[in-house]
Amino acid sequence: MKVFSEQLSSGKAAIRFDVIGGPDRDKIAEDMSFLNYRLGTVEVSDKVTKEKADIIWNYDEPVKSITFENGVLTLNSFWEEGELNKIMVSMLANEMDKCGMHPFHSSSIIYKGKGILLVGGENNHGKSMTQLEGCARGADLFSTETTVTDEDGLALYGSKNIYVRKRAKGTERSDLPDQDQGVTMFFGKEPDMKMVYEPCKMDLCIMPCIDGHFQTQVTKMGQFEASYQLFHSLMNFFGMNQLLCGVNGLAMPVVDDDPVRRQHRAKFCSQFAAGRPFYMIRAKSPQILFDEIEKIMEQEF
């Protein structure tokens, strides 16, 4: 039985993906934009250094299934590329977590010499538009969808794709609005964006909420709420809410099954939240919201 192996890495974390059987192939995923968008940067190589596979795909098995046992995720039968993308994101994020690297569902900018982490949190309403408004005011862009930090909270790297313009089959989303339409509505045209690639400190956390009906509201979060929203931003990558196949109702298994590491992640969120100011801002537009960020910066720094 032929086996095709590929290794995917982000930072110092790596997973091995073995495909057993199926058609001849020279890659597992045709389009890597989704993985780079979700995990900051992902490198793919057919030069495998890991002795054991982290993902095994038995392509020729007749019944579609997904299981996780003894650290190995096993797939049977045919899976769409979009489904595979989500599986690879969860498994690589899990490995990153083991290596002390924490991917936050967030955007981040450097503005007036300060790093600002725009946290997606539980609801995720406005980090991209807030980031664009920051760039329109002269901020440098560090990350767009994902910010990866180390154990000390230093931002190491992040995604640079502003949007995913094409989703692979199996990840289509009719509930997400057209991002270009949002940019046109708020900005006319997309602002210029200067990218930052060197690691940097995040000095301020903002959870933006943008809706045309919102009255402006600024709330400084306490320890619990800030930690709660940060934990949501980390757990976003583990696929716990992912239904991978609507026909058969196959959910993503629990891959972060080490209770000690789960508690460590919670402690990390608590320490990160305590280390910098954390605000929730509601506003009708990114312009109004960023006006409030300006006020907070004058007050905090």
Primary descriptors:
alpha/beta; Rossmann fold; 301 residues; 2 domains; 28% strand; single chain; nine-stranded mixed beta sheet; 7 helices; 17 strands
Tell me briefly what this model is.
The chain folds into two domains: 3-100, no CATH class; 102-236 and 262-300, 3-Layer(aba) Sandwich (Rossmann fold), CATH 3.40.50.
Q: How would you sum up this structure, described in words?
A:
By secondary structure, the protein is of the alpha/beta class. It has 2 domains: about 5-100, no CATH class; about 100-235 and about 260-300, 3-Layer(aba) Sandwich (Rossmann fold). About 30% of the residues lie in helices and about 30% in strands. It contains 7 helices and 17 strands. The protein has helices at about 35-40, 80-100, 125-135, 180-185, 225-235, 260-275, 285-300; strands at about 5-10, 15-20, 45, 55-60, 65-70, 70-75, 100-110, 115-120, 140-145, 145-150, 155-160, 195, 205-210, 215-220, 245, 250, 280-285. Strands 7, 8, 9, 10, 11, 12, 13, 14 and 17 form a 9-stranded mixed β-sheet that branches. A 6-stranded mixed β-sheet has the order 3-1-2-4-6-5. The protein has a two-stranded antiparallel sheet with strand order 15-16. Helix 1 (about 35-40) runs parallel beside helix 2 and helix 5 (about 225-235) crosses helix 6 (about 260-275). The radius of gyration is 20 Å and the shape is elongated.
